[in-house]
What we know:
Layout: H1 70-83, H2 85-119, H3 125-134, H4 136-164, H5 172-179, H6 183-198, H7 201-213, H8 217-241, H9 245-252, H10 256-267, H11 271-307, H12 311-352, H13 354-368
Region (Disordered): 1-51
Transmembrane segments: 87-109, 140-162, 183-212, 224-250, 271-303, 315-344
Domain Glycerophosphoryl diester phosphodiesterase membrane: 226-306
Amino acid sequence: xxxxxxxxxGWSAEQPPPYRAPGSPYSGGPxxxxxxxxxxPQPPYGxxxxxxxxxxxxxxxxxxxxxxxxxxxxxxxxxxxxxNPKAVLGLSAIVxxxxxxxxxxxxxxxxxxxxGSLTNPTADPTALESGxxxxxxxxxxxxxxxxAAVTILTGILIRILGRAVFGGKITAGEAWRLVSARVxxxxxVAFIVIxxxxxxxxxxxxxxxxxxxxxxxxxxxxxxxxxxxxYIAYALVVNTRFxxxxxxxxxxxxxxxxxxxxxxxxxxxxxxxxxxxxxxxTVIASVVxxxxxxxxxxxxxxxxxxxxxxxxxxxxxxxxxxIGTTLGAMLTYPLxxxxxxxxxxxxxxxxxxFDLVLQTAALEQQRQGWVHATADELWHxxxxxxP
Length: 387
């Protein structure tokens, strides 16, 4: 068949190449330089060929619904804060302020005593000792208040996180109504963990007192140092093994003992990864808190020295220290709670194929166009699967 156009190699008469007038620029179809090149074979449908890139995981909320990497966990924590800043940062600021006020008062009294002694060399030296002792009582009060406030805050943040995984938002009031019934169990976990951490200290104190009373100070010091290193390792293991107890209490509705047992099982098999991420998060939180609070501490120290420890300066110093401590804790509380909650989610995905449960629910919610409250029920342990 001849119609004035030459059929290039690789084209049949039934499928002629696109018409191109002589001298005209190329305007479509396979380029003439590619006519001689063979087409690479395509893998059969359903088979992954070389270089196959799987589709991205479903991500309705703050994390992709698949096993999480370190970047996913931190990115999800930041998205948790940004997606609901009023509830997350607002509650964290309130709790941080409540915990910061007593300890800030104690520190202000101590700095006031130091400033008075520096500006007045004839001042009574016992005033400096009294100022140092005076900060211990507020610090102890702050520790108790902080324990109670942070325990409740952690539960609320975990409940907010549980809904944010699906892209849903929840107010602080609604989160509190959902968590209020779980507060006794949260305190149960906190008290059991504290008991586990304090229990080894009793025999140590008795042994050190017995050795020191016998006039053997050297063995007492050596024994004390050896115990310090052993106790640090013990405390890290306890905190890692039971790191998921609070999320389990809130999201799965278990009691404190059952939650701690389940946390132990979830951590088993991936202990070092969980330990490393929690330790890294603690270091990051400490550094962030120190960077934020350092300028306020510096200002407080300068004011105390220049003012000579006056009453007005002491009040101003307490306010400055409280602001710095509150700002630092306002960011570190959500960071630590978010990482613990997402690590718990990751462990369920890896050990119980929980990502399949979340994906099925997310697809249904996308079909309906909204995230309803029944999404909270998906965290129940009855939805666990074995991969």
